[in-house]
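Session log. Operator J.P. requested a structure for one protein chain; no other inputs attached. Running the standard single-chain path with token output.
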Amino acid sequence: MSLALYGEITAKQGAIEQSNYHDYPVMRIGAAPETHVHIVESKELSGGVGEPGQPPVAPALCNAIYAATGKRIRELPVSKHNLAKA
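Structure written below.
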């Protein structure tokens, strides 16, 4: 969700401006939405469980913004858009 909301890397005179987390915003735990994890039994081989849920976050967020405001977000990060006026 950090990437969808804030994730932007910018360059100035050919150099990346962000050097670390002090100037590259990431979502802090207090700002993150509540999440629920459900372990589902399976006879399949074990594998990663955290990554599959990540790709749909940005599209789901943008669709929720559209449903609430009528403003279609077609470029990330969402923070680049002036949603206060939407």
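Operator note: Strands lie at 11-12, 15-16.
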